[in-house]
Amino acid sequence: MNKIIHMGQLVPLSKEMKLFELIDGYPQLLSIFSRLDIKLPFGDISVEEMCEREGFDAELFMMLCNMHLEPEHRPVDKDLRVEMLGGVVAYLRSSHRYYTGYMLPHVAQHLERVLEHCDALSQRVLRSFYDDYVGFLASHFDEEERDIFSLIDNIATSLDANFSMLEAPHGDIDDRTNDIASLVIKSLPERVPTALRCSLLDHIYMLRDDLRRHSVVEMMLLRPLVAKFQNSVQR
Amino acid sequence: MKRVRVAIIEPSRIVAEGIEAILGRSAEYDVVCNVRTVAEYHARRGGDVDVVLVALQYACEELGSVFKIGIQTSLTEADLMRQVSSIVSLYSTEEEIFKALGESVDAPVATNFSDSHELSERERDVLVLVAKGHTNKEIATKLFISPHTVISHRKNIVHKTGIRSVAGLTVYAVLNKLIDSEQL
User: Which of A27, A179, B12, B161 is least enclosed, having the fewest CB within 10 Å?
Assistant: First the structure.
């Protein structure tokens, strides 16, 4: 359980805490605010007040924060409510946009800086490898949005839909992200300045870890919520 | 020096004991298991074997991640011969038997990675063919090795380079000047 120092004591994260305390304690959560496009400034409001203002389920928001901070964190089944389904899909959709519109272009920018120190052939193959990787992710996201999210949007009319794709492993994505990191570490020429190489690696690993968390949210939140919804209607 | 642990799986006791007697003349090899069937081999040994000298008729059976040398005592189908990394026959000389075993010492075994992250010459050959888009079977034919050995080389390549995808391995081959753009 992730904790925070509040009034001199270490306490678990809660929706009652001030938003400032949450961000000040865990600035890495800012990317959640960014992808959900939560409006600033917050003023001196609590997490719950912010969620109310944004129309986002506060309990779900705390689950996402805890899963973001602690990849092993698993929400308790009894805390999952079918009303959270729309929020989870909104979060996953906004994450797709965050990857394609922010993280992947950011890695590309850092890659370009590194490529300036490589010969023409290396530039060509690495650029093409990265472009293929971006295309591969984009088509995976498109597939999820088309085959899963749109069905969930209309779940009341697609109760018999098969959501087995949610159980498909994301190993390919992880492998390909790790491949980029391995090439940067092991195969780029020595003349590439260390600072540029490390900065690129920082962004690749941030992307890899975020994609892993994304997959955990699909498995541990989306999948059980879909099952819960289907069961509740069938009963 | 650590001795190479050898298992012999051969239904003919005369052949099996003959091979064991030859290996006994070298301090490099330790015959840890000499059995007539694969079932006996699994019953007797755990994973502590480096090389298996196996009768070719058993070559398709699951022996785990070990270097396999076939023992040919009769005419054998080509498919079975492809399951092993090299072959010794009833007519092999002592030198030929030690040569086949010697190759196993430097050969890749999937679960026994060397500490070095440098690719061996053979691994580079396999990598180049992977980068050019050849299948394991095609690589085995081109390099005159078994598909099992190709798979072992590929596992070692992944372990040493940290790269799993064929596209990534192709980039690795180009960046490390193992292949030029015209060959792609």
Answer: A27
Bridge partners of residue A181, in order along the sequence: none
Q: Does residue A146 sit within a domain?
A: yes
Q: Give the closest of B163, B174, B176 to A182, CB-based.
A: B163
Quick one: pLDDT at residue B45? 59
Q: Which residues of A touch B183 (CB under 8 A)?
A: none
Domains contained in chain A, number: 2
Same domain assignment for residues A59 and A116: no
Average pLDDT over residues A113-136: 95
Average pLDDT, chain B: 83
A47 part of a folded domain:
yes
- Sort out which chain B residues have CB atoms less than 8 A from A120's CB and list them: none
Q: Give the mean model confidence (pLDDT) for residues B101-117.
A: 57
* Residue A41 sits in the same domain as residue A113: no
Domain-located, residue A147: yes
A226 inside domain: yes
**Complex-level ipTM:** 0.80
Domain ranges of chain B: 4-106, 121-183
Residues A55 and A102 occupy one common structural domain: no
For the entire predicted model, the pTM comes to: 0.69
Q: Would you say the C-alpha torsion A154, A159, A161, A166 has a positive or negative sign?
A: positive
Q: Are strands B67-72 and B29-35 parallel, antiparallel or unpaired?
A: unpaired
Half-sphere exposure of B75 (CA within 13 A, CB side): 0
Return the SS3 of A55.
coil
Condensed to tens digits (0 to 9), the pLDDT of residues B118-164 reads 899 899 999 999 999 999 999 999 998 888 889 889 989 998 999 98
The CATH homologous superfamily for domain B4-106 is: Response regulator (3.40.50.2300)
Distance from CA of B152 to the nearest CA of A (A): 19
Residues A55 and A150 in one domain: no
B158 touching chain A per CB within 8 A? no
Given this structure, which CATH class describes domain B121-183? mainly alpha
Structural domain for A111, as ranges: 88-234
Question: What's the alpha-carbon Rg for chain A, to the nearest Å?
Answer: 20
In sequence order, the 6+-apart residues with CB closer than 8 A to the CB of B157 are B119, B123, B126, B127, B130, B163, B169
CA distances from A77 to A30, A224, A226, B118 (A): 26, 8, 12, 48
Which of B163, B180, B181 lies nearest to residue A183, judging by beta carbons? B163
pLDDT in the model for residue A68: 93
* Smallest CA–CA distance from B178 into chain A, residue: A187
